Amino acid sequence: MEKFFRRKVNDKFNYQEKEKKLSELNNTDNINNIQKFDLYNKGINHMANEKLTDAIRCFELSVRIDPQFVNAWIKKGYAHFHLGEYSVAISCYNNALDLDINNFEAWNLKGLAYYRMNNLDKAIECCEKSIDINHNDGMSWYNLSCYLVLGGRVDDGMEALKPAIEIDISYAKRAV
Which helix (H) or strand (E) holds 8? Predict the structure, then answer.
């Protein structure tokens, strides 16, 4: 059945041309993925070398390639946090949370930024959301413990410290 009403079926539907366009799109997506991860890793390396503005630039470029790259938003926020730009950091964490509301790391770091802005109520709220998402994150329990104690709720803070120590004994040393 080569011909269907005197035309080739393949010519009518252009299968080869569609396959070619799909392979070009997949190739472009692969290149973009490689570029975004390469920029992300460069940003991580810049953070390790304490070149925070260079790290922020790499994370921004990575996010330009893929605006839904949650980890780049989180690391960008963390770099801003270390520069003392807490409101910008919170904005980055909010962008990450808009994409993945269940990202416990973003909630915990957002709480840390609120703590630095002396807003303990919001810091506690963020840590509680982080713990609700991942009950086994020792850092969230430890941060919650610290915020509760600083807020004058010492008994609640000590109760929050227990799970942190159970998860990771190193929090006991920090708590002292």
Answer: strand 7-8
